[in-house]
Amino acid sequence: MDFKNIFSAMLRKTITCRSISQITNRKISLSCAHLCSKDCDSDKKGSPLKKLLEDSASFQDVPVSKQQWVTLPYPEGTKIQRPEEDTRPKVDPRDTSIILFPGQGTQYVGMAKGLLKFPIVKDLFELANYILKYDLLKLCLQGPKDKLDETRYCQPAVLVTSLAAIERLKEERPNAIENCVATAGFSLGELTALIFAGAIEFERGLRLVQIRAEAMQLASETHKGGMVTVIYGPESKLRYACLKAKEWALDKGDSFPECKIANYLSPNCKVVAGSESALDFLERNYKEFNIRRVIRLPVSGAFHSEIMRPAMETFRKALNKTQINDPAVSVYSNVDGKKYRDAEHIRKQLPQQV
């Protein structure tokens, strides 16, 4: 056995491997330096590091014809299949915005006070006063709090104040309005988003919200209920807790026993809506179901539950009589998290989020 020849071949292999390593390291260093350069933002062909990773298994830096012992990882003639280049225009997050609108429960005495110095805001409230037949601005600024917290009043208040805040945004950050690519809102805020997107005119939208708020107020007074925020972990039995709470409410004689998840806030946080006895059961017994916390919300009804069914039908009838346009900006629905396709889609799906 010729150990000298074997040792020479091993030495050549070691030197070649070092060369490959040096080439790869040099390419990675150059790519990382390029990624950190100021010119990286103007690179329209994609990340150089991504290209390096795509090419890293081709071994094109190795002269195969001169090093017969080097073999490629693929049969000769194999072409590497790469995904087609994405031709969609790249969206720079620094040049775009997404506007979100709040829902019921965000109202407070003094809201809108800091917005009155901006153009159109006073006109907006004066028009709202005319439509609603009461002084909304005075209620927002002076209260009383217990009246402002009523569903019939707080929903119009939050909607008009949210649109007033848009007037402030127009003055202070006009690009945020001009470059808005999508909008959404929490519950009531979804109607504000639709008005902002041009799907519903302000006057019609405010009348819709007034009808919605009064119908929800009536449903809340007919069947007493409320909502709680529930914080839990993987070991918790939230759905079983809701089932037992509903059974408890039935035994207690609630006029409409109900307990269900109404809002999905995060993987470990939900909002539960239910009749009064059901929520009392959860507040007293949540630890038995390994639930971490139960926090009562400052709302007057079990919104987004079957208790609101009459309000949903009232709102649906009003919506069917309202002119709706295709939104100029993408508006995402509370019901399924998808954007509304057109005006007819809004008309069919919007009532489901009551």
From TrEMBL:
<dbReference type="GO" id="GO:0004314">
    <property type="term" value="F:[acyl-carrier-protein] S-malonyltransferase activity"/>
</dbReference>
<feature type="domain" description="Malonyl-CoA:ACP transacylase (MAT)">
    <location>
        <begin position="100"/>
        <end position="354"/>
    </location>
</feature>
<keyword id="KW-0443">Lipid metabolism</keyword>
<dbReference type="InterPro" id="IPR016036">
    <property type="entry name" value="Malonyl_transacylase_ACP-bd"/>
</dbReference>
<dbReference type="InterPro" id="IPR014043">
    <property type="entry name" value="Acyl_transferase_dom"/>
</dbReference>
<comment type="similarity">
    <text>Belongs to the type II malonyltransferase family.</text>
</comment>
<dbReference type="InterPro" id="IPR016035">
    <property type="entry name" value="Acyl_Trfase/lysoPLipase"/>
</dbReference>
<dbReference type="GO" id="GO:0006633">
    <property type="term" value="P:fatty acid biosynthetic process"/>
</dbReference>
<keyword id="KW-0276">Fatty acid metabolism</keyword>
<dbReference type="InterPro" id="IPR001227">
    <property type="entry name" value="Ac_transferase_dom_sf"/>
</dbReference>
<dbReference type="InterPro" id="IPR052760">
    <property type="entry name" value="Mitochondrial_malonyltrans"/>
</dbReference>
<keyword id="KW-0275">Fatty acid biosynthesis</keyword>
<keyword id="KW-0809">Transit peptide</keyword>
<keyword id="KW-0496">Mitochondrion</keyword>
<comment type="pathway">
    <text>Lipid metabolism; fatty acid biosynthesis.</text>
</comment>
<protein>
    <recommendedName>
        <fullName>[acyl-carrier-protein] S-malonyltransferase</fullName>
        <ecNumber>2.3.1.39</ecNumber>
    </recommendedName>
</protein>
<keyword id="KW-0808">Transferase</keyword>
<dbReference type="Pfam" id="PF00698">
    <property type="entry name" value="Acyl_transf_1"/>
</dbReference>
<keyword id="KW-0444">Lipid biosynthesis</keyword>
<dbReference type="GO" id="GO:0005739">
    <property type="term" value="C:mitochondrion"/>
</dbReference>
